C-alpha cells in the first residue's frame, strides 16, 4: 500500500525541482509560440436528407432508418469527406492557386523556390490534369513523387490538411459541419467550400452511376425473365393444340357432374326396378294358377300392341339416356308412355276376363307396373353404358392434367420472377429520377482571427511539465524499495527495530562535544536522546546479560559509530564499560581511540583482566589488525572463560564484530555474546544476498534483539516519533 504522506514528503524535498522545471518549460514555450501567426476558422453546413422526413416524402420508396443505420450513414459520409480522394483534390486546388497566383496562400517553400519557370509550368499542368481527372499521384513514378514532395513542402499534403480539418455531425441533426483552420482567412473559406462542392459532385456522380448500373442490370434481367415466361407459355399452348386440350379443369368438372348425375339416376332406376318387381310379385300372389292362366291366355292378343309400343319406348329411353337427358327425347318418352296407358285401357274395355271382374283393377295395375319395371331395367343398362363411357373419357384426361399442371407451375414461377424483377426495375428507374439529397446550405466565409492560443499553450506547457515531474517522482517513489525509516525496516525484515539515528551534519564529528550535556546544538541534543532511547531498549532486552555484540550486514553501515556512542551513553548512567574492537579486518575503534590494550595480549595471557580494569569509566580493548579470527587467538573454551572473567570486572561489554558478509569471523563472536544487535544504513534495499544474513539473525531467536537504523533522513520519520 502506498504511503501518501511519505510521497508528499518526497515532493516537499524536491520542491525546487517542481518549481524550476515547469518555469523553464513555460519560458521555452513562450519564446517558441510568441511569433506564431494568427489562425482563421471557416465552416460550412451540408444537409444530408438522411433524417429529414420532408425530403423523404419526395421519394416514396425511402423508409425510416434505425438510429444505428443513421449513425452508420453519417459515419460513411464523414469518412468519405475525409478520404484521400477528397484531400487530393484539395491539395491540387491549393497548389494550383499558389503556382498561378501572385498572392499565394503560404510563403513558398525551398522546394517551390528551387523550381525554374519550365518546371513550375510543368507542375502546374500536371496538377490541373490530376484535378480534372480526379486521379491520385503515383509514388512509383519519379515525376509524380516529386509533385508529392512539393505538396508536402507547402504543407498541402493529406496529413497536413487533415490536422486542420474538422468534420462532424451536429448532435442528432441532419447536418454535417465542415471546418478548416489556417493562417489565411480566404484560404480557410476556399478550402471548406471547395471540399463541400467536390464531395457533393463526387457523391452525386457515384450514386447516379450505381443507380444506372442497377437500372441496366434489372433491364437485362427482366428481358431474360420475359423471354423465359414467353417460352413456357408457347410450350403449353403447343401441347394443348397437339393433344386437343381446351380447358382440363372445366372438362373434368363437367365429366364429374355428368358421372354424378348418371350415378344418381342409376341408383333411382335400380330402386324403381326392385320396387316394381316386388309389387308385381305381390299381385301375382293374389291370383290362383287357374286365374293366372286364364288371364295370360286372354291377354296374349292384347299384349302384342303393348309390346310393340313398349319396344319403341325402350328405344327412346336409351336415346334419352345417351343424349344426356335431352328434354325433347323426354317428351317423346312421355308420349309413348301415354300411348301404352291408352292401349291398356282399351284392353280393359273388351272384358277379357271372366264375369268375375273383381280382380280387373289388379290386372290393370300389374300391366302398368310391368311396363315401368321394363323401363327401369332398360334405363339401368343404358345408364351403366354411359357411365363407362364417361369414366373412360375422364381417364384420358389424367396424363394431360399432369403435363399441364407441371407447365402451369413453371409458368407461375417464371411469372413471379419476372414480376419481381420488373418491380425492382421500375423502382430503380424511379429512384434514378430523384436527385441526390446532399446540398450545401451554408457557404463558408472568411472569418476573423481566432482567439490566440499562445497563453493557453504556455499555461498548458507549465501544467504538463509539472504533472510530468510529479509523475516521474511518483514512479521513482513507487519503484523505490529502499529502507528509509524504522517502520519500513521492521516490515521488510519482520524483526523488531530498537531505534534509529539521524544523519548528523558536518564533515567531522567530535563525540566529546556531542555528549556534553550542557553544550551543543539542537541536532546534538536530539541525537543524544535517540542514543539514550536505544540504550534503554537494549537494557530492557539484555535480561542480566553483559556482552552486547554489534554487527552489520556489510561494511560501512555505522556499527563503529554506534558502538562508540553506546559506550558514552552507558558511561552516563554510571556503567563501567568495556569496548572491544573485534573487527580484525578494519580496526576502526582501535584507530579512533588509539587503544593501548589489545585483545591479542589478553588472550595470550600477557595481559590480565585486572590490568585493564583502570579507574576510567570506559576501557577500550583494541586489536592489531591482522587478518585473523577470534578462535585463532584462543580456543572457544578459553575465550568463553576469559569473557567470564571480564564480566566480573565490567557492567557492560560492547563488542564490535565484523560484518556478516565475512562469514565465520562475525559468527565466532556471536557464540560468546549474550545479545546481538545489527546496524543498517538507511537508503539501501534488501537484496537477495542480504536475505540469507537476515534469516541467520532470525535463527538466533532470543539472542538477536533487533536493528538500529543509521543515518535516517529527518523527513522520513513522523514528527511524533522524533526525539
TrEMBL record:
The keyword ATP-binding does not apply. It comes from the Bacteria. Its main location: membrane. One of its GO terms (cellular component) is plasma membrane. Residues 2-91 form the Polysaccharide chain length determinant N-terminal domain. SUPFAM superfamilies: P-loop containing nucleoside triphosphate hydrolases. It is a multi-pass membrane protein. It is found in: Cell membrane. Residues 266-319 form a coiled coil. The chain crosses the membrane at residues 16-33, 455-479. Keywords: Cell membrane, Coiled coil, Membrane, Transmembrane, Transmembrane helix. GO terms for molecular function: protein tyrosine kinase activity. PANTHER family: FERRIC ENTEROBACTIN TRANSPORT PROTEIN FEPE, TYROSINE-PROTEIN KINASE. This is Polysaccharide chain length determinant N-terminal domain-containing protein.
Amino acid at each position: 500500500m502506498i504511503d501518501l504522506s511519505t510521497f508528499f514528503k518526497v515532493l516537499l524535498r524536491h520542491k525546487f525541482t517542481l518549481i524550476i522545471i515547469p518555469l523553464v518549460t513555460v519560458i521555452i514555450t513562450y519564446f517558441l509560440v510568441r511569433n506564431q501567426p494568427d489562425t482563421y476558422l471557416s465552416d460550412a453546413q451540408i444537409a444530408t436528407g438522411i433524417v429529414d422526413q420532408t425530403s423523404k416524402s419526395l421519394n416514396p420508396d425511402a423508409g425510416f432508418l434505425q438510429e444505428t443505420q443513421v449513425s452508420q450513414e453519417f459515419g460513411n459520409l464523414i469518412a468519405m469527406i475525409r478520404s484521400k480522394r477528397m484531400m487530393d483534390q484539395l491539395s491540387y486546388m491549393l497548389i494550383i492557386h499558389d503556382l498561378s497566383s501572385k498572392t499565394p496562400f503560404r510563403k513558398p517553400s525551398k522546394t517551390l523556390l528551387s523550381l525554374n519557370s519550365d518546371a513550375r509550368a510543368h507542375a502546374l499542368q500536371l496538377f490541373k490534369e490530376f484535378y480534372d481527372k480526379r486521379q491520385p499521384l503515383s509514388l512509383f513514378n519519379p515525376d509524380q513523387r516529386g509533385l508529392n514532395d512539393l505538396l508536402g513542402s507547402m504543407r498541402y499534403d493529406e496529413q497536413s490538411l487533415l490536422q486542420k480539418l474538422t468534420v462532424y455531425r451536429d448532435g442528432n441533426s441532419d447536418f454535417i459541419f465542415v471546418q478548416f483552420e489556417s493562417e489565411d482567412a480566404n484560404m480557410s473559406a476556399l478550402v471548406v467550400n471547395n471540399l463541400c462542392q467536390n464531395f457533393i459532385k463526387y457523391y452525386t456522380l457515384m450514386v447516379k452511376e450505381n443507380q444506372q448500373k442497377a437500372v441496366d442490370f434489372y433491364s437485362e434481367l427482366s428481358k431474360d425473365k420475359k423471354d423465359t415466361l414467353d417460352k413456357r407459355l408457347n410450350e403449353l399452348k403447343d401441347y394443348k393444340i397437339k393433344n386437343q386440350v381446351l380447358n382440363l379443369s372445366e372438362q373434368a368438372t363437367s365429366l364429374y357432374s355428368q358421372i354424378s348425375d348418371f350415378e344418381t339416376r342409376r341408383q333411382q332406376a335400380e330402386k324403381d326396378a326392385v320396387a316394381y318387381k316386388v309389387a308385381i310379385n305381390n299381385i301375382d300372389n293374389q291370383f290362383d294358377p287357374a286365374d293366372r292362366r286364364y288371364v295370360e291366355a286372354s291377354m296374349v292378343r292384347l299384349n302384342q300392341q303393348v309390346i310393340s309400343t313398349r319396344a319403341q319406348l325402350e328405344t327412346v329411353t336409351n336415346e334419352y339416356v345417351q343424349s344426356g337427358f335431352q328434354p325433347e327425347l323426354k317428351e317423346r318418352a312421355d308420349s309413348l308412355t301415354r300411348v301404352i296407358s291408352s292401349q291398356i285401357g282399351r284392353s280393359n274395355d273388351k272384358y277379357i276376363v271372366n264375369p268375375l271382374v273383381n280382380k280387373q283393377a289388379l290386372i290393370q295395375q300389374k300391366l302398368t307396373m310391368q311396363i315401368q319395371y321394363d323401363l327401369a331395367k332398360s334405363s339401368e343398362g343404358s345408364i351403366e353404358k354411359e357411365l363407362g363411357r364417361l369414366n373412360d373419357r375422364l381417364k384420358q384426361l389424367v396424363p394431360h392434367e399432369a403435363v399441364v399442371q407441371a407447365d402451369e407451375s413453371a409458368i407461375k414461377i417464371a411469372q413471379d420472377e419476372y414480376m419481381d424483377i420488373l418491380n425492382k426495375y421500375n423502382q430503380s428507374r424511379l429512384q434514378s429520377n430523384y436527385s441526390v439529397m446532399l446540398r450545401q446550405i451554408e457557404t463558408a466565409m472568411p472569418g476573423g482571427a481566432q482567439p490566440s492560443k499562445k497563453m493557453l499553450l504556455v499555461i498548458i506547457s507549465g501544467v504538463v511539465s509539472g504533472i510530468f515531474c510529479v509523475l516521474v517522482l511518483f514512479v521513482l517513489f513507487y519503484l523505490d524499495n529502499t529502507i528509509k525509516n524504522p517502520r519500513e525496516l521492521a516490515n521488510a525484515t519482520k524483526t523488531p527495530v530498537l531505534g534509529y539515528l539521524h544523519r548528523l551534519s558536518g564533515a567531522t564529528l567530535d563525540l566529546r562535544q556531542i555528549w556534553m550535556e550542557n553544550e551543543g546544538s539542537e541536532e546534538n541534543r536530539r541525537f543524544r536522546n535517540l542514543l539514550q532511547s536505544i540504550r534503554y531498549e537494549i537494557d530492557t532486552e539484555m535480561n542480566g546479560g553483559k556482552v552486547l555484540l554489534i554487527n552489520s550486514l556489510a561494511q560501512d553501515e555505522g556499527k563503529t559509530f554506534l558502538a562508540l556512542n553506546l559506550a558514552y551513553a552507558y558511561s552516563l548512567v554510571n556503567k563501567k564499560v568495556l569496548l572491544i574492537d573485534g573487527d580484525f579486518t578494519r580496526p576502526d575503534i582501535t584507530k579512533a581511540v588509539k587503544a593501548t590494550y589489545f585483545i591479542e595480549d589478553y588472550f595470550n595471557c600477557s595481559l590480565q583482566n585486572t590490568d585493564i580494569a583502570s579507574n576510567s569509566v570506559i576501557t577500550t580493548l583494541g586489536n592489531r589488525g591482522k587478518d585473523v579470527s577470534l578462535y585463532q587467538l584462543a580456543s572457544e573454551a578459553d575465550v568463553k572463560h576469559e569473557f567470564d572473567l571480564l564480566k566480573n570486572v565490567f557492567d557492560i561489554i560492547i563488542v564490535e564484530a565484523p560484518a556478516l558478509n565475512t562469514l565465520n569471523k562475525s559468527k565466532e563472536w556471536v557464540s560468546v555474546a549474550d545479545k546481538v544487535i545489527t546496524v543498517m544504513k538507511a537508503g539501501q534495499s534488501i537484496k537477495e544476498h542480504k536475505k540469507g544474513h537476515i534469516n541467520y539473525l532470525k535463527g538466533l531467536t532470543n539472542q538477536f534483539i533487533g536493528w538500529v537504523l543509521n543515518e535516517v533522513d529527518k523527513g522520513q520519520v513522523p514528527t511524533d516519533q522524533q526525539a
